[in-house]
Structure formats: C-alpha cells, structure tokens
Specification:
Helices cover about 25% and strands about 20% of the residues. By secondary structure, it is α+β, with helices and mostly antiparallel strands. It comes from Subtercola vilae.
Length: about 130
C-alpha cells in the first residue's frame, strides 16, 4: 500500500469514502474556527444549567456524532470554570480540520473541529479537558 488515494469522483469520494480537503487554513477560516471554539466553550461552561438546557446550548456547535455522546453528559458532575483568555489555533490547521486551545480557569481545553467540505461552519467533534479534569 503506497498511501496514494484514487482521484475523487464527482461526489467527492475516492471509492473508499469522502475526500477531505487538506489545504492550509486561510485567515477567514482561522477566525471562524476560533470564534466557534469560543462560543462552544462559553456554552459548555454553563454547568449550573439543568442537563437539557446545557445540552441545548452546546448542541448547535456539535457534529451529529459528537452530539450523540455529549447528550449523556451531566453538567452537575463537571468542574465549573470560566474562560480566561483568547483561543489559539494550533499549528497545522487545515481548511477542514482545526484544533483551538481555549484557556480557562481550570486549564487549557483543546477544541477539535471539522468542516468536511472545507467551507461553511465549523462543528465541534470533541473538547479535551485539561489534565486532571473530566
């Protein structure tokens, strides 16, 4: 296996699955990614809300797959925190995938986002809490 994929067909597939764009992120994409990460983390930090209200607040930021997991989180069991600085886009961001480091009062969360077409809105696929947090 050489790792060389077949050329995508008109549906954006190489025969094994969708082809994800790999071009470097541009300034507008970077700004949209950091804005999405900040909005998500503001909603995610609302741990004082009832479970359904908390989930409703983060749902619009999530991929469908991520939402199936996050719907079972109980914010009452999560450490409360506040955002404490501006997000930083990690090196290596592409037009379709990006990770932002978001500083909070309990440490830095990594917010992993995707936009499979390489354009449009970013969607959060996962937020990784600081070491020692759940």
């Amino acid at each position: 296996m050489t790792g060389i994929a077949a050329a995508p067909d008109s549906a954006g597939s190489d025969g094994t699955g969708p082809v994800i764009p790999t071009a470097p992120i541009d300034q507008a994409g970077a700004e949209a990614a950091t804005s999405t990460a900040t909005g998500f983390m503001r909603a995610y930090s609302q741990t004082q809300l009832p479970k359904q209200a908390w989930f409703d607040g983060i749902r619009g930021f999530l991929t469908d797959f991520a939402a199936t997991g996050y719907q079972y989180n109980d914010p009452a069991t999560m450490a409360s925190f506040t955002l404490s600085g501006d997000p930083t886009l990690e090196q290596g961001a592409m037009v379709a995938t990006a990770t932002c480091d978001v500083p909070t009062s309990t440490g830095v969360y990594q917010v992993i986002m995707v936009r499979p077409s390489g354009a449009g809105n970013w969607a959060v696929s996962r937020a990784i809490p600081p070491a020692g947090q759940n």
